[in-house]
């Protein structure tokens, strides 16, 4: 019975947090780069799956990065607009869940073509690191493969209208 109560409380808290974020998103000006708008969620942390769903609920999708210029733009957001301190992580939609070692953007299905991994990454640590996040490793920011169940901030994107 106590597990049911915990799950119910977590569901209520998450629903309220999503409602708050949705109302904040409607008021917030998003970042824009070329043909995309970005919404940076720097207050709420979620696992990969919940981040994906959160973006969907906003009518957006979890971040994909199409080229090095876009990567540099996102990196600039991390360095200047949010407190992306050492140890911080931020989800993208990249994953190799379908085939180990072959990363695709879950939001679009396209392969991850840019190579912005931190040194010695991806390493599939513990045999179950399948989702790509930005990671600030002692001041050096880049891609890391991480357990999809870990919690991190995230960025949603949508086509610029």
Net shape: globular
Helix fraction bin: 25-40%
CATH superfamily: Mannose-Binding Protein A, subunit A
Q: What's the story with the biggest beta sheet?
A: 8 strands, mixed
Backbone CA Rg? 16 Å
Task: Assess the beta-strand content as a share of residues.
Answer: 25-35%
Structural class: alpha+beta
Outline the low-pLDDT stretches: 5-15, 20-29
- The figure for the number of domains is 1
Mean pLDDT: 85
Order of helices and strands: HEEHEHEEEEE
**What is the β-strand count?**
8
Termini separation comes to 48 Å
How many helices in DSSP terms? Answer: 3
Stated plainly, the CATH topology is called Mannose-Binding Protein A, Chain A
CATH class: Alpha Beta
- Tell me which CATH architecture applies here: Roll
Signal peptide: 1-17
Domain C-type lectin: 33-157
Protein name: C-type lectin 37Da-like
Keywords: Signal
């Amino acid at each position: 019975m106590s597990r049911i109560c915990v799950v119910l409380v977590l569901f209520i808290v998450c629903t309220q947090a999503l409602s708050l974020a949705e109302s904040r998103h409607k008021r917030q000006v998003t970042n824009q780069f070329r043909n995309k708008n970005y919404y940076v969620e720097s207050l709420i942390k979620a696992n990969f799956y919940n981040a994906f769903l959160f973006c969907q609920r906003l009518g957006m999708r979890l971040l994909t990065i199409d080229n090095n210029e876009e990567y540099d733009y996102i990196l600039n957001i991390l360095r200047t607009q949010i407190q992306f301190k050492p140890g911080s992580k931020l989800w993208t939609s990249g994953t190799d869940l379908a085939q180990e070692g072959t990363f695709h953007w879950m939001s679009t299905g396209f392969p991850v073509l840019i190579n912005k991994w931190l040194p010695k990454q991806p390493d599939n640590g513990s045999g179950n690191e399948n989702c790509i996040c930005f990671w600030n490793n002692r001041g050096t920011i880049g891609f890391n493969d991480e357990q999809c169940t870990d919690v991190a901030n995230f960025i949603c994107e949508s086509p610029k209208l």
